[in-house]
Design goal:
The protein is mainly alpha-helical and 284 residues long. The protein has a domain at 51-229. Helices cover 60% and strands 4% of the residues. The chain contains six helices and two strands. A two-stranded antiparallel sheet has the order 1-2. A hairpin with a 5-residue loop joins strand 1 and strand 2. Residues 1-31 form the signal peptide.
Length: 284
């Protein structure tokens, strides 16, 4: 009886071992298929032949590409200003702003005044009341003005990008809600559903990136304006402290002398005497 069951058990063991080998051999392929990202996350727009979905996927792809350039846009204004003040473009915003404030303060001390105008466009107006601007001074003024323009433009551009992402998310949610009915019987229904879910993640990330770098660009422009306006001229070396003007002799009034009529305080009048015999002071 034992001998008759041995071949069956051996066959089952060999079949199980073969199955394990097949699974192990195809495990990397199965894992790759399961972890494969969607087309929209790879920068491609799915073509379904249905206009609402195709337009959404294409617009989402464009927003994704623009958001990937947001950091570069925000860094451009910072880098140009850093070079103009003699710093490394990788310096922090605070270091660059402090250097710009110090340079404009030096120019103020020599009689060069600045005024920032943001409407209709950002620009830096300088008025020379002292020495003329040399090449380095003009380079600094041009860099500050270019940084202001670039920061304001970048903030507006990325703010608009965030708004577009929010509008696309509304369209995506509406299409996802009606996709089961609109794509009933469509062989690509599951693929479209996966792309719609991926588009939600892509749009959320693009909006967050755009808002973050738009805020950074806006803050740089505002801080730069404040740094220029607050760049009070430092005290010059060797400058003597201005003394208050002396008061001319005889201008101050001397205190009144004792016993003089000018300094006496008038006494209040005495009250009238009471009527005689305690009577009334009116006729009966």
């Amino acid at each position: 009886m034992w001998m008759t069951r041995t071949p069956d058990r051996a066959c089952r063991l060999r079949a199980a071992a073969l199955a394990l080998l097949l699974v192990a051999a195809h495990a990397p392929l199965l894992a790759a298929c399961a972890a494969q990202p969607s087309q929209i996350e790879q920068g491609r727009a799915l073509r379904t032949g249905k206009q609402p979905y195709d337009e959404l996927f294409e617009a989402t792809r464009e927003v994704r590409e623009e958001s990937m350039k947001a950091e570069e846009l925000a860094r451009a204004a910072h880098a140009d200003l850093a070079r103009a003040v003699g710093l490394d473009p990788r310096s922090t915003d605070d270091a660059v702003l402090e250097a710009a404030r110090a340079r404009t303060a030096e120019l103020r001390a020599s009689g060069v005044l600045f005024r920032v105008e943001l409407v209709p466009e950002a620009r830096l107006v300088s008025a020379r009341g002292g020495r003329s601007l040399d090449a380095d001074d003009r380079k600094l003024v041009e860099a500050i003005e270019a940084s202001l323009k670039s920061s304001v433009a970048t903030s507006r551009q990325l703010g608009e990008l965030s708004r577009r992402a929010a509008e696309l998310e509304k369209r995506r949610a509406s299409l996802a809600t009606g996709s089961a009915e609109a794509l009933a019987g469509d062989p690509r229904r599951r693929e479209v559903k996966r792309e719609l879910e991926a588009a939600e993640r892509v749009l959320a990330e693009a909006s967050a990136v755009a808002e973050r770098h738009a805020g950074r660009a806006s803050k740089l422009a505002l801080d730069l304006v404040l740094a220029i306006d607050a760049g009070a001229a430092p005290a010059r070396r060797g400058a003597t402290r201005r003394q208050p003007p002396r008061q001319p002799a005889g201008s101050a009034k001397a205190p009144p002398r004792r016993g003089s009529s000018a300094g006496d305080t008038p006494k209040p009048p005495k009250p009238p005497p009471p009527p005689a015999h305690g009577g009334d002071d009116f006729d009966p």
